[in-house]
UniProtKB/TrEMBL annotation:
Involved in ubiquitination and subsequent proteasomal degradation of target proteins. Together with CUL1, RBX1 and a F-box protein, it forms a SCF E3 ubiquitin ligase complex. The functional specificity of this complex depends on the type of F-box protein. In the SCF complex, it serves as an adapter that links the F-box protein to CUL1. Pfam families: Skp1, Skp1_POZ. InterPro entries: SKP1, SKP1-like, SKP1-like_dim_sf, SKP1/BTB/POZ_sf, Skp1_comp_dimer, Skp1_comp_POZ. This is SKP1-like protein. Part of a SCF (SKP1-cullin-F-box) protein ligase complex. Belongs to the SKP1 family. It comes from Abeliophyllum distichum. Residues 1-57 form the SKP1 component POZ domain. Pathway: Protein modification; protein ubiquitination.
Length: 149
């Protein structure tokens, strides 16, 4: 059993086989660097959901279809929550979760307008109208098939 403390000081006890799905935790445990509690830079709400993800992916009784359905529901979140999952997966080094979340994220912005993506990321447009028009003409291929907002 491994005890993990979230960024907001909530402790979670997780089975060793679950911890080993996180390369970060696996390395800490294998290097015998784990004290009684391993602190992680992930908020408790996100960490709880990540642990649920790991439990499902570590449970042999879940079939491929069940796991796929779980994954689809798991990433059916808005941008801020998905971002938290990506940051947690990156910090804990959970490749499968990082890939899942990044794929969902890529699908969210695929064929979206520049304005939509700027809005999603909170990016201010620092181009003049003339500069933007020049970019649209020079890189017209990048704007083909873009959906209306």
């Amino acid at each position: 059993m491994v005890t993990v403390r979230s960024y907001d000081n909530e402790e979670f006890e997780i089975e060793d086989y679950i911890a080993k799905q996180c390369t970060t935790l696996k390395n800490i445990v294998e290097d015998d660097c784990a004290s009684s509690v391993i602190p992680v830079q992930v908020e408790s709400e996100t960490l709880s959901k990540v642990i649920t993800y790991l439990n499902v992916h570590g449970d042999a009784s879940f079939g491929e279809d069940d796991t796929k359905q779980f994954d689809e529901k798991f990433v059916d979140e808005d941008f801020p929550i998905l971002t938290e999952y990506i940051l947690a997966a990156n910090f804990l080094d959970i490749k499968s979760l990082l890939d899942l979340c990044c794929t969902k994220f890529a699908n969210m912005i695929e064929n979206k307008s520049v304005e939509f993506i700027r809005s999603l990321f909170g990016i201010e447009n620092d181009l003049t109208q003339e500069e933007e028009q020049n970019h649209r003409q020079q890189y017209a291929w990048a704007f083909e098939g873009v959906e209306d907002d």
